[in-house]
Design a protein that fits this description.
By secondary structure, the protein is mostly beta strands. The protein is built from no helices and 9 strands. The protein has one domain (4-100): Rieske [2Fe-2S] iron-sulphur domain (Rieske Iron-sulfur Protein, 3-layer Sandwich), CATH 2.102.10.
Length: 102
């Protein structure tokens, strides 16, 4: 499994979600209590940027229609979204956030 550097740990504060582009993927990186989670940044319902939404615990609410996703799995938790977003395997190497796109 190949991991690609996304960002430095210090670039995403605790309780924050930030948008990054890695290769051709636009992703949302969440920091929950020092653990990092990565999902696709585009809502499966309205194609809005999830990184502009609100993170509460492990739930990320889309800013357009309020659909909520579990950032640890990508699962759609509330309507109007019914389709999950892709989640990615994450590891921390030194102070780098690394993800696997495969």
């Amino acid at each position: 499994m190949v991991f690609i550097k996304v960002a430095k740990v210090g670039q995403v504060a605790e309780g924050e979600v930030k948008r990054f582009t890695v290769q051709d993927k636009v992703i949302a990186v969440s920091n929950i209590g020092g653990a990092f989670f990565v999902v696709d940044d585009t809502c499966s319902h309205a194609k809005c940027s999830l990184s502009k939404g609100t993170l509460s615990g492990k739930e990320l609410a889309c800013p357009c229609h309020g659909a909520k996703f579990d950032v640890t799995t990508g699962k759609a938790l509330t309507l109007p979204a019914t389709v999950p977003v892709t989640s990615y395997k994450v590891k921390i190497e030194e102070d780098n956030i690394m993800i696997s796109l495969s």
